[in-house]
């Protein structure tokens, strides 16, 4: 592949899909054949497209998206499983002469898709499910963090008691003899060495504008039937990992204000992740059209293709 692969990351509601489509349309005008490859931990699920903000059918008509909406809602999922598929999709696209656009909002999934991370093996069968069930109890997460403080004090100091994903990840690592602190500080989670040449772009937006977009998105989801969607997924036996989608539990309970709050909290965590990604080039997209942002991304890509490797 003569030009670098394009990767687009950013917080929820910032407009990643619209920018990816704009990039794809510009690429087609140059004779390239783009395909989007998703790196989102929840958009993999079939049956919950609204609550996970998957590209709409109309958007997928404009740009093919892989690794989106393919997994039955009752199945669990992990970064290791996703990484294997993402590597295969990227390699297949390149072999077919296509231009991959890696896009999503789950930082670890993005890094794993772009690099060769030394991921810890998955926990023994049943461990993840048991942890998720415990965390779903009112005081379960606090109890799990208290146990973590006893079993791995360094990890407990790094992980907030309210951070479900990291508390559970720390316990999963303990189940395979690893420490969260050891892994988080290791080079394998923060390597900048990508599998293929890559231009990594992080989309940012002024805080008030992003908060407004997040609230509007939630309102649009509800109007489109997100509450019916989560009720149907619940009835279908949605897995604990599917239920981790921001807004799932809140919409199931009819608690819309908390769903909006959790969406804003997610955006803040994603912004923190974005600033820790090695080699990321940040673009402020506030009040900018997707086509304008897409053109800037392609300009960065062209510049990168002419920059000698260190």
Radius of gyration: 19 Å
In the CATH scheme, the class of the largest domain would be Alpha Beta
Low-pLDDT stretches: 185-190
- Helix fraction, binned, reads 40-55%
CATH architecture of the largest domain: 3-Layer(aba) Sandwich
Per the principal axes of the C-alpha atoms, what is the gross shape?
globular
Query: In this structure, how is the largest beta sheet organized?
Result: 6 strands, parallel
Number of domains: 2
The count of β-strands is 6
Order of helices and strands: EHEHEHEHHHHHHEHHHHHEH
Number of helices: 15
The amount of beta strand, in percent, is: 5-15%
* Strand order in the largest sheet: 3-2-4-1-5-6
Could you give the distance between the termini?
19 Å
Mean pLDDT: 89
Provide an overview of this structure:
With 310 residues, this protein is α/β, with parallel strands linked by helices. It folds into two domains: 5-117 and 193-305, Rossmann fold, CATH 3.40.50.300; 127-187, Orthogonal Bundle (Histone, subunit A), CATH 1.10.20. It has 15 helices and six strands. It has helices at 16-29, 57-62, 79-95, 107-114, 127-135, 140-151, 153-158, 164-175, 180-185, 207-224, 226-235, 240-243, 248-252, 256-276, 290-305, and strands at 5-9, 34-38, 65-66, 99-104, 198-204, 281-284. A six-stranded parallel β-sheet has the order 3-2-4-1-5-6, sandwiched between helices. β2 (34-38), α2 (57-62) and β3 form a beta-alpha-beta unit. α5 (127-135) runs antiparallel to α8 (164-175) and α10 packs across α14 (256-276). The relative contact order is 0.19.
């Amino acid at each position: 592949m003569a030009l670098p692969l394009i990767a687009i990351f950013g917080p929820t509601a910032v407009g990643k899909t619209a920018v990816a489509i704009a990039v794809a349309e510009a690429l087609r005008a140059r004779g390239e054949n783009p395909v989007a490859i998703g790196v989102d931990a929840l958009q993999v699920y079939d049956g919950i497209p609204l609550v996970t903000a998957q590209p709409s059918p109309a958007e997928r008509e404009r740009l093919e998206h892989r690794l989106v909406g393919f997994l039955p809602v009752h199945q669990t999922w992990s970064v290791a499983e996703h990484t294997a598929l993402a590597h295969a999709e990227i390699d297949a696209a390149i072999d077919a002469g296509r231009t991959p656009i890696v896009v999503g909002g789950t930082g670890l999934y993005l890094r794993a898709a772009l690099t060769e991370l030394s991921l810890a093996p998955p926990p023994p069968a049943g461990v993840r499910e048991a942890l998720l069930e415990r965390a779903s109890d009112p005081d379960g997460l606090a109890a799990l963090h208290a146990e973590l403080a006893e079993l791995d004090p360094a990890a407990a100091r790094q992980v907030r008691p309210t951070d479900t994903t990291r508390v559970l990840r720390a316990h999963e690592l303990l189940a395979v003899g690893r420490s969260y602190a050891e892994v988080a500080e290791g080079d394998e989670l923060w390597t900048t060495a990508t599998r293929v040449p890559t231009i990594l772009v992080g989309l940012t937006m002024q805080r008030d504008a992003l908060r407004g977009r997040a609230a509007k998105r939630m309102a649009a989801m509800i109007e489109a039937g997100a509450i019916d969607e989560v009720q149907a997924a619940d009835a279908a036996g949605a897995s604990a990992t599917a239920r981790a989608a921001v807004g799932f539990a809140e919409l199931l309970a009819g608690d819309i204000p908390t769903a909006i709050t959790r969406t804003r909290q997610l955006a803040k965590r994603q912004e923190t992740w974005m600033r820790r990604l090695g080699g990321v080039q940040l673009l402020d997209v506030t009040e900018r059209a997707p086509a304008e942002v897409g053109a800037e991304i392609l300009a960065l890509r062209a510049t990168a293709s002419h920059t000698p490797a260190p």
